[in-house]
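Notes, Module 5: Reading structure tokens.

Key idea: the token line is not a picture. It is a compressed description, and you learn to read it the same way you learned to read a sequence, by spotting repeated patterns. We will look at two proteins. The first is printed below with its tokens.
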Amino acid sequence: MAEKKKIFGFGFDPRESQHHFLVVIPRDNNGKVVIYERFKWQEDTEVQTIDYIDDRPKVELSKYKWKLIEDALKDEFNSRLKKEKLPTGKWKVGQVPVQRLFGKEMVLLAWAIEDCDPSVIPTAIKNWLGLSPEERWWLFTMTNAATGGLKDKRGWRKAVRYALTENPIEESNRQMDLFDLLISRKIDD
């Protein structure tokens, strides 16, 4: 009999790849949600130990802003997990692992809202949902290569914020307009 797959959080299976993202959600409402990109998974432990040398903090959000995007992330990821007949995930206080491609998409949205006014977060979510997963991966990769650190808030990172939060576009031209805006707004402070 085949061993049942153990899936953690949102689609993360450490037997396929140990590369994942780890969302750390504090209990305190005044705390910060931190998303780490990680390349190692510690087996046989409920709580992962953050290695401050190898684990890369990608973004930090107020819990308030996190709450504004968590349902959109959950719905998007769980819809795709259901199509693959995999267990769905949920956000909880503590640590939530996220499969690496979902993690890239999640970080892209978090980068877009990290320094924005909360009133534009619904626009960011709508524009983010209008992109295909492949477009989100590409935007993450380009942004991460240039400004992927926790405190890198210029260049591509700034352009992502403008593209997703300040660009309420029509449904029919959504994807092309976002890319055009992103390229035209790429600023290297």
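Here is the second protein, with the sequence above and the tokens below, as before.
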Amino acid sequence: MKVFEKNSNIFKLLSEAVSEGIIVVNAKQIIVAANGSANKMFGYQDEEMVGLPLHSLIPKQHHTSHTGHFESFLVGSQKRQMGRGRNLSGAKKNGGQFPVEVGLNPFQLYGNRYIMALMTDITERKKAEEEVSHWFQIFNESLNEIYVFDATTFKFINVNHGAQLNIGYNLEELREMTPMDIKPDFKETTLRKLVAPLAQGKKPKLDFETMHQRKNGSFYPVEVHLQLSNIGNRKVFVAIILDITERKAYTENLEKTVAERTEQLEEALAAEKELGELKTKFLSLVSHEFKTPLSSILTSTTLLSKYTRTEQQENRDKHLNTIKNKVKYLDNILNDFLSVERLESGKINYKHTTFPLSKVINEVVYDSNMLLKEGQQISYPQDIDEITLYFDEKILELALSNLVHNAIKYSPENTKIDIQVSKNKECLTLSIIDEGIGIPAEEQKFIFERYYRAGNALLSQGTGIGLNIAKRHLENLGGDITFTSKENMGTEFRIKVPLNS
């Protein structure tokens, strides 16, 4: 150490101008010099590190392995870069740890061996790498197809895993292709004309429907959301693709089903007055249940166009969430109507599988948590991890969701929805107990009738279909739904699932 002190002024002069931390240790792993950047990096005062063992700067869990590495390096005496591709950490004086990269340079002075370590704190780089890795994982695992292509050449730069699976090409193949290769009806001039408003900054996004062609030659309809972005100084287009095959088929089938049922209903009206009353009630219900969310969607869509500045993103997000929620609500209503039709026609194929009860309850509770009012909570059943059922999982989830959602809807704030499970040799019983408005005694006998809604529930949204559908499905599978209720005190619904099905 004394030998090195002779040259301390020279060391300080040369090292203090360097932003990286510089530490010099002797063959006994004792620190003989450190520059200001190193002191600051490890949390020491000037000259405070001199005389400390090198272990002071290394996390305790690495002390044992480090001794062997140091001795091996001293014997080899070759310049070496450490840290790239490895996770090296430094230990601060206060016990904190941080990631570092280290360059090691052996040298001799007056016959003594030393090692100079050039250290860089890479905390910010690690954070950036982790963030990039996180976003890349989201990009690659997205269920939607995502294509990134050059704004000038149109060649694909990156395509996520979901898109590769659906289109049939791997990433290497796609990087030699352009959107025109998967959209045969598009010529380059057509695409350039289409994206011109984006390239010229006239529009922030383009939405349109088109067809994509897979590697095997088959076609599928897609909805495209296209935006202009940047990768460094390179302008790129980002296309988020939704495969709308099922939506198209669903819409066509729905239109066909509605047309068929309307014709059948009109024929039946001439014969039975009761069906005429049913149609009036149905149309009134549809008008009421569709008008409110559609008005909200129209209002939010109109307001969206007014928030054009970047700082108004929060307002845009608020209205987008309103639109999404209302569309989901409408979709649920349509699904209920389709379920009624399938039950009436007998076109239902139930699928029995073996599954843990906890899986269904977890999914229902997770979805229901987003609907809870202020202060409401769901009490989760205990000791159900070992219970498995052989039943139609989707039907049980449908019935349980319906009852839990109703309990939330018809209960005030700051109340509890309790889910309980009991079991005997013949059946398993799921009880959903709320502290809500209850069902008037004189109306309880009608509660499972289609489109029926109790008088004290008319101010809340609902079709009066859900309970009817759930009960009929369960009865078809050998189960049942029953209930007890007192007005203004709450309701307990019980789902019974046979164990010998």
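Summary for the second protein:
- The chain has four domains: 2-124, 142-243, 246-345, 353-498.
- The chain has a mean pLDDT of 81.
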